[in-house]
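Ticket closed. Logging final result for Aconitate hydratase, mitochondrial.
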Amino acid sequence: RSPIASLVTFYKKALGVRQYHVASVLCQRAKVAMSHFEPNEYIHYDLLEKNINIVRKRLNRPLTLSEKIVYGHLDDPAGQEIERGKSYLRLRPDRVAMQDATAQMAMLQFISSGLPKVAVPSTIHCDHLIEAQLGGEKDLRRAKDINQEVYNFLATAGAKYGVGFWKPGSGIIHQIILENYAYPGVLLIGTDSHTPNGGGLGGICIGVGGADAVDVMAGIPWELKCPKVIGVKLTGSLSGWTSPKDVILKVAGILTVKGGTGAIVEYHGPGVDSISCTGEEGGQAAWPLPCAGPHGSPVGSRSMATICNMGAEIGATTSVFPYNQRMKKYLSKTGRADIANLADEFKDHLVPDPGCHYDQLIEVNLSELKPHINGPFTPDLAHPVAEVGKVAEKEGWPLDIRVGLIGSCTNSSYEDMGRSAAVAKQALAHGLKCKSQFTITPGSEQIRATIERDGYAQILRDLGGIVLANACGPCIGQWDRKDIKKGEKNTIVTSYNRNFTGRNDANPETHAFVTSPEIVTALAIAGTLKFNPETDYLTGTDGKKFKLEAPDADELPKAEFDPGQDTYQHPPKDSSGQHVDVSPTSQRLQLLEPFDKWDGKDLEDLQILIKVKGKCTTDHISAAGPWLKFRGHLDNISNNLLIGAINIENGKANSVRNAVTQEFGPVPDTARYYKKHGIRWVVIGDENYGEGSSREHAALEPRHLGARAIITKSFARIHETNLKKQGLLPLTFADPADYNKIHPVDKLTIQGLKDFTPGKPLKCIIKHPNGTQETILLNHTFNETQIEWFRAGSALNRMKELQQ
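Final structure:
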């Protein structure tokens, strides 16, 4: 405990002064670094406290935890308009994190800005470009060879502009952030939709597109629509086979894939902070602990991170848990006891105020919660594990499980691996191995090294598992799958977060289900969706029947974590001699050219490239998997534009009518034809268009190939912002039924752009081939700043205008 912290406690007890009043004075001398990788970048709880007090006085009401952290990072807390769901906030995030697939375009945009260094601590994490094929070491060597040009670009760009670089093999970005960078009260933005993972350590961590990251790295206040707050009150306690993953699977079933849009999900209640823990070290806890896990064990920081991580699947801006003793323990175990001690002094600001108001309240009784499995094809189709077999038989889903996969940024911690190993040991004791293929993805090099040391990895290998590289792998489609042919109907079960059509293996007939790692392990042993580990028996090699017991495992290793290999590259103090080269003939990287400015006129006679039928995620708009290698080359990756979207005209993917030739052809080819002939075009979409990944390529590609607007019933938050950043018009039908008035053969004119103002609808004239016309209204969410992006051609163009 630091002398300053002890002095704060002394004054608190002696004078009866509320803890944070004294801390605010003394903390200025108790400088604590945000990370040991950046010893001169400090946590500013004093500023957080100051801003919270200003806002609380203005609003004159109790604040949620989400509000405290978000409003605590306001650029102008005294003057900022604050209205949940309406006003746009100007924020000052503490740091930026980028994974390698999105970092390429983010760094290319930052280079285009002309700025010499990033203004806030920033990191690049190499986790997306490693394909699962043979196993960890071999796959990593192959990836380093194939992606050498990209890795070199990211490493040298990081060195040149002051960005830390985590080399391939380091681990998944979100696990690295949790181990090194997340802390209670942090405001972190990351160029990946599962950045909310950091909410498991009490931070507000938000997924964004690369252009948003560039704003923050450039020192520009970051804009976010003031989020609503959904409260999830947890009561009771977890037991048996029920895991923290089941909490978010249940919530996803309640809210659906768009129910959290525009909101932060804040977990609270006695299930979080009023249940004592078994086996707590060091005597009585300083304050109530989070909810009990299997067999009364506590839900720790990583388990809370699992819940926050999958909040992306309900469209939430982010999710967060209040600071508690389990977070303190995790921070200490990962070498950040100084941060934990500082957080103790400010903990009143790291939990919600009593009596705070939520825009929506959901209650989940953990004692009644059963193990869940969600899918296929969407992460909000929730089933109790006990019932999924019957549902599968009724729906005609394949019952035999071809592959079980554990890991991903959602479930790849030490505790996750321990629970799976506990299940595996029981099967091995009866002579059994997996009937299904089985893969294991460690979340980080630290996790890999520690589970190797503690024997978990070998137990899972003995069960028949293959330990893959510390990377995203099959979760994002980086899987060289050999056991089936494309188009073959099959079932896989994963502990991942998404299960959209074709996401894991590019096979549209793969029925992917998501559940907890221990349920995946049990189902892989049984080999069928009809197996319920709570009630069903297995038969050992001796012919005797036995039932798997609910697994238990340590949240943290008894010994210290084994850090494994050093995989971090510090940016040099002097980068003046550092060069970043992009070859003009490269097929992987391409310097960006500025998009054209708005010409000051209404958009006349826009051609409809495609009218999309049903779900259209960013995977449909810009596929991952083999396309990841082109994430740094805008023209090449544009060849995957909307190839997964279903055309309402013919019910097919990647087949649209060319309005000039009247021939059907691939979507990208048709878009290129229109661009070549000066024909501007639009896309018509359905509900929650652009859900899923944060990838801004889904906005860059249509802009690059000539789109001017995307018109839908509704948008996912990140994608809508990404479209605005690139100078496109994301518009929604004032009357959703107007979606049915537009046909792929129509032309559209969008009027009102000369008087483009916040809150004022635009007029759209639908011109039918028979000469008739209809007029409808289109809504938008643009504010004044975003309108300037549109007029300038992009947010980056506008930034350059302001610099000049």
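The two ends are 50 Å apart (CA to CA). No further action required.
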